[in-house]
Design a protein that fits this description.
The complex is a heterodimer. By secondary structure, chain A is of the alpha+beta class. Chain A contains six helices and nine strands; from the N terminus they run ββαβββααβαββαβα. Chain A is 23% helix and 16% strand. By secondary structure, chain B is α+β, with helices and mostly antiparallel strands. The chains are: A alpha+beta, B alpha+beta. At the A-B interface, β7 of A face α3 and α4 of B.
Chain lengths: 217, 179
Amino acid sequence: MSEHVTITIDDRKVKARVGEKLLWTALENDIYIPHLCAIEEEKRPNASCRLCFVEIEGMSHPVTSCTKTVEEGMVVKTRSSRVDRLVKTGFELLLSDHDLKCRECPANRNCALQKIAKGRGLKLRQKRFTLIERDYELDDSPAEFAFNRSRCVLCGQCVWADRRENEIGVIGFARRGINRVVTTFQDLPLAESICKECTVCVDVCPVGALYYKKTAE
Amino acid sequence: MQLKEGEKEQILSCVKDVLNKSSKKREDLIPILQKVQAKLGYLPALAMEIISEGTGVSGADVYGLATFYNQFRLIPPGDHQIKVCLGTACYMVGGDITLESFERRMEIKEGETTSDRRYSLERVACVGCCTMAPVVVVDDEVEGKVTPTRVDGIMLALKNGNDQTKDKQDQEQEDGEQQ
């Protein structure tokens, strides 16, 4: 059996490694699919951001490309009216509780949300859902970085990085539904927790939730 | 919430006991938390710390789990537990107003316990007697048609009831001393 399979994405034939997930094949070949929560090394993807939908020929509904393993002869379309609708809704929901003060945000122009909006022609200021204004307290207790939960999109990249870096796990998800947050044990400020301030979580944050203090100045 | 005297030892021995009797894999975490809560009435931070060490699951994950499920409570229940129903029927006839009057009377928010640990206030979704809406469950007694005036009555009864049992204890103590 060969190590590679050939699939078609948007009428382009591309080679993919056996066992690879569709999203990563597409991204390697410069085919853009929006994504926030996807982590290549993760065995069971969370598939929680609901942005990486694609149409696969022979399947009745759009599927998340981060969970779909490539198969020989697969025919994929990254855009369709159904895909666009799902992505738009997912994106609008993400932004419905997002602190949209881009000009004050250290991730401005370097933000995954802005990139998705640009890539798919979506508006950052959505009107469909009632805006929920977050008033989480800013955690600027660590020396080098700070955590603004009002900007967090709950992608889980920081939690994953944190687990990979130190096995104890400083941060994790807590609470449920609309109240879900990334937090420490007992909601302690990071400096008072077991955090060693290794800043791996800051490096992977796709938005401006975890940021270096010096970039905010 | 501040731990009372002797409570630390109680928590330590309880958690140790539960951990000794149970396997300590990640999937055993929920049963462990349930057993500890059944014994202590709630999950103190100290208990979660020991469980995290014992099972090797990170503290953040134990905390995440305990805050995810409604069945786990992180603050101790009061001597008297008051549950205000906010199911559809109770809500329609002003259950939220009843809840608010309790909050004002006790000076706590829903889900909290008074600092003297005498009362705790919770909201529930339907206790199964919607004809009596708005319903409040005081300890195990169901109270129907609870208006803000009735809230005052319930609080007064609880206070007097407390005083009576307290008086009784005092009396018995005095009697004992006299003998």
